[in-house]
Design brief:
Elements: E1 7-15, E2 27-37, E3 43-54, E4 59-65, E5 73-74, E6 79-88, E7 92-103, E8 108-119
Antiparallel strand pairs: 1-2, 2-6, 3-4, 3-5, 3-7, 7-8
Length: 125
């Protein structure tokens, strides 16, 4: 990977019991994402690609422009955080994906989002 163009992504998930309904197979999770420009060039987030997998191995793919209606532009060393959500039909699953970025010099690159888990309390021992 070219260190000139690098965005580090951290994720943290939270179960949202107040919005979930286990009887209806609806498990709602919030997640906080922090992007940090660890490269040498300013870059703007263009789009996202998520792969969301539940415990039944059902996969949802989500693609879209920006994040929460924004296209953050990060200078080297800057970070940006946002919170969003996902709904599963099972009490646990995972998310992973990537952000498509563009540096100010026109170079496009991907910022990978490592797999993280969505787990409702008391579902795994």
């Amino acid at each position: 990977m070219n260190d000139d163009y690098q965005i580090t992504v951290e994720a943290e998930a939270f179960y949202q019991q107040q919005y979930s309904n286990a009887d209806a197979g609806q498990y709602v999770f919030a997640y906080r994402i922090t992007l940090r420009n660890t490269g040498r060039h300013p870059a703007k987030l263009l789009s996202r690609h998520w792969i969301i997998t539940d415990a039944n191995n059902d996969v949802q793919e989500v693609r879209g422009m920006g994040v929460v209606g924004e296209h953050p532009h990060l200078q080297p060393g800057e970070s940006y955080s946002y919170t969003s959500g996902a709904t599963l039909r099972t009490p646990y699953g995972s998310m992973q994906g990537s952000y498509q970025m563009q540096a100010d010099d026109g170079t496009r690159f991907e910022a990978p989002i490592a797999e993280f888990h969505l787990i409702a309390p008391r579902t795994l021992h």
